[in-house]
Design a protein that fits this description.
- With 252 residues, the protein is of the alpha+beta class.
- It has helices at residues 47-59, 75-89, 91-97, 132-140, 155-158, 174-181, 185-191; strands at 2-7, 33-35, 44-46, 66-70, 111-116, 146-148, 166-169, 201-203, 209-217, 222-227, 232-237, 242-250.
- The protein has a four-stranded antiparallel sheet.
Length: 252
């Protein structure tokens, strides 16, 4: 068995971080950033997320009809955007569409705002309708680890108004499970806490393979997780109180 010793601060790292008004970004997030699109080198994302984004755009043959609008933001950038929007649009609008500095998913490097490629694009609310090439993207996204983060029916839970343009990378199969069960990231984070090492969530997509998912609460010191050396797995903190383990297994 491979024994993994995880320090408590590791709960603030990974693809499944819950970031919202109650759960701020902890630590710096500048590492492992690459352009979300080679034609927009200033718009960055975490490496895995950027690669998955490009795979979606290739699958749907977007032909530059969809462009990235905003990716990773530092806390200073988020502060400037928040203050400028507050000044220009007012408190009500800002509260609906712009997260407080330190509480924005954009600071994680895992979020991207997308828009139709038009002559003028609204930076805060880009046009990304529920039809055409945008809807093609929306339908393909969960197979590559992305979710539409702020759905209209989840506004009371997320605290953010519907943002059809805002997508968040959580990784596969979590994106598919959230879609199939109709869960926001807030709800999914709590949902996974009912699954432990001895009663794992099983997700089957391909014949002969399964993916097992379970939650491990973080201890005050180090948290030890035992994994068979032959299993492929991923670990992610949830940004609140524990770790989510995702294991890929072949069924013999």
């Amino acid at each position: 068995m491979n024994r993994l010793s995880l320090e408590r601060n590791k709960i603030y790292q990974g693809n499944l971080l819950l970031v919202n008004g109650s759960c701020p970004i902890m630590g710096r997030r500048e590492r492992d950033l690459i352009p979300a699109d080679i034609h927009f080198p200033e718009i960055l994302m975490r490496h895995d997320a950027a690669v998955a984004l490009q795979q979606i755009l290739k699958e749907i043959d977007s032909a530059d009809r969809i462009v990235p609008v905003s990716g990773y933001r530092s806390k200073a950038e988020q502060t400037a955007i928040y203050e400028e929007t507050l000044k220009e649009k007012g408190e009500e609008f800002t509260g609906k569409y712009v997260a407080l500095p330190g509480h924005s998913e954009h600071q994680s490097g895992l979020a991207i705002d997308l828009g139709l490629n038009q002559e003028e694009i609204d930076f805060i609310c880009p046009d990304f309708p529920y039809e055409g090439i945008c809807e093609d993207f929306r339908k393909a996204a969960p197979d590559y680890g992305f979710i539409e983060r702020y759905a209209k029916e989840k506004e009371e839970i997320t605290g953010i108004s519907n943002e059809p343009w805002h997508f968040r990378y959580v990784g596969f199969p979590h994106s598919r499970i959230m879609l199939e069960k109709g869960l926001s990231l807030e709800e999914y984070t709590e949902f996974l806490k009912s699954y432990g090492e001895d009663n794992r969530l099983i997700y089957r997509r391909l014949e002969g393979a399964e993916i097992q998912i379970y939650y491990v609460p973080a201890k005050e010191g180090e948290t030890v997780i035992s994994m068979p050396e032959t299993e492929v797995y991923q670990l992610s903190g949830n940004n609140t109180d524990g770790f989510i383990v995702t294991v890929w297994r072949k069924i013999i």
